[in-house]
């Protein structure tokens, strides 16, 4: 029970407080749940076009193209699984004790930074992969050099147009998470 | 598992506490109110997962303080807009204007002193002022009662010194 004789306690409890808008909170909780569901669905649906391309073109694909696509789909599936696991973990740690929460938040942010770092590198290596893929196709199907270069050029422009904004977004998120992690580390030293 | 009505009752009961907890993390009135709403939302969401392994009280405090810590970590490097004049620190049912002004000032001073404490001292002290026992504070913080006692005594001493209570 509270010791009302302690002047600090009495003063503390004199603060004016806000009444909660329970209806608004319920609505927001519903919205947040739908948002999480949407994010999870998007994460899974992103894999679908790749899988469909693989199934659609499978009969006409050479061994090189098949292996390449299997490799990309596998990496994306593992990445998606990891992101989904991380999302669940972030929600679960909110119910831990304060000390554990700070420690776990640091490790979650470290994981997020690792993912973003890997994503940044994969974006940077995307043009190299595109070059490797189209040169591979050119050699595999014995296409004329002009045809190969044309395909490669179009693919490189498309890749750069997609990758550049994505890379900037990753860089900004990385900087934000890094700062947040540093702040949590500073709080962890205060909680020791 | 708690039903909607039980969750509503719990939220109504703990909302004033969450509001006070929010002011210990955020000086800006508008942001403190926002944080208080975020805490209410986090508590509402977490109550669905409550399994009764601890008391509802310590469970709610854990969720609320974790939200507060996240808020500090997220906003620590953003420009501060602490405008204490915005803070409505009116005292309910007070008819004497002079007493109200004086009490307001004292509350402001207390809040400033609390916010100047280290994070763990701040958390332990506010929970103690809310009436939690050493055992309960330890459960929320993940500390033993001895550690809670040491931190609390040090924090109280520091705040009382600032407020000239000693």
Automatic annotation (TrEMBL), chain A:
The chain crosses the membrane at residues 37-58, 64-85, 121-139, 151-170. The keyword Transmembrane helix applies. Keywords: Membrane, Transmembrane, Transmembrane helix. This is Uncharacterized protein. It comes from Fluctibacter corallii.
UniProtKB/TrEMBL annotation, chain B:
Residues 12-73 form the RNA polymerase sigma-70 region domain. Residues 108-158 form the RNA polymerase sigma factor 70 region 4 type domain. CDD domains: Sigma70_r4. InterPro entries: RNA_pol_sigma-70-like (IPR039425), RNA_pol_sigma-70_dom (IPR014284), RNA_pol_sigma70_r2 (IPR007627), RNA_pol_sigma70_r4_t2 (IPR013249), RNA_pol_sigma_r2 (IPR013325), RNA_pol_sigma_r3/r4-like (IPR013324), WH-like_DNA-bd_sf (IPR036388). Keywords: Sigma factor, Transcription, Transcription regulation. It comes from the Bacteria. NCBIfam families: sigma70-ECF. Belongs to the sigma-70 factor family. ECF subfamily. PANTHER family: RNA POLYMERASE ECF-TYPE SIGMA FACTO, RNA POLYMERASE ECF-TYPE SIGMA FACTOR. This is Sigma-70 family RNA polymerase sigma factor. It comes from Fluctibacter corallii.
């Amino acid at each position: 029970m509270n010791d009302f004789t302690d002047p600090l306690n009495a003063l503390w409890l004199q603060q004016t407080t806000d009444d909660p808008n329970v209806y608004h909170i319920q609505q927001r909780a519903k919205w947040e749940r739908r948002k999480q569901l949407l994010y999870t669905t998007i994460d899974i649906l992103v894999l679908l076009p790749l899988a469909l391309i693989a199934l659609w073109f499978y009969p006409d694909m050479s061994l090189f193209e098949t292996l390449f696509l299997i490799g990309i789909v596998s990496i994306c599936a593992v990445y998606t699984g990891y992101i989904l696991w991380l999302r669940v973990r972030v929600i679960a740690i909110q119910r831990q004790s304060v000390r554990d929460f700070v420690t776990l938040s640091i490790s979650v942010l470290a994981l997020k930074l690792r993912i973003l770092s890997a994503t940044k590198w994969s974006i940077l290596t995307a043009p190299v992969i595109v070059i490797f893929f189209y040169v591979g196709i050119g050699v595999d199907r014995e296409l004329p050099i002009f045809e190969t270069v044309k395909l490669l050029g179009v693919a490189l422009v498309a890749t750069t147009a997609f990758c550049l904004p994505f890379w900037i977004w990753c860089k900004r998120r990385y900087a934000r998470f890094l700062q947040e992690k540093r702040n949590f580390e500073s709080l962890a030293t205060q909680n020791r | 598992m708690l039903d909607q009505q039980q969750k509503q009752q719990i939220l109504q009961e703990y909302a004033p506490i969450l509001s006070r907890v929010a002011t210990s993390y955020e000086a800006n009135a508008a942001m403190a109110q926002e944080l208080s709403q975020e805490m209410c939302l986090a508590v509402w969401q977490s109550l669905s997962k409550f399994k009764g392994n601890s008391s509802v009280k310590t469970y709610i405090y854990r969720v609320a303080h974790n939200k507060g810590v996240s808020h500090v970590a997220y906003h620590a490097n953003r420009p501060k807009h602490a405008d204490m004049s915005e803070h409505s620190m009116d005292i309910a049912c007070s008819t004497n204007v002079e007493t109200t002004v004086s009490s307001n000032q004292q509350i402001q001073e207390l809040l400033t002193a609390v916010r100047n404490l280290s994070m763990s001292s701040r958390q332990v002290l506010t929970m103690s002022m809310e009436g939690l026992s050493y055992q309960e504070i330890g459960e929320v913080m993940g500390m033993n009662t001895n550690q809670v006692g040491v931190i609390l005594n040090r924090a109280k001493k520091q705040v009382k010194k600032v407020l000239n209570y000693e």
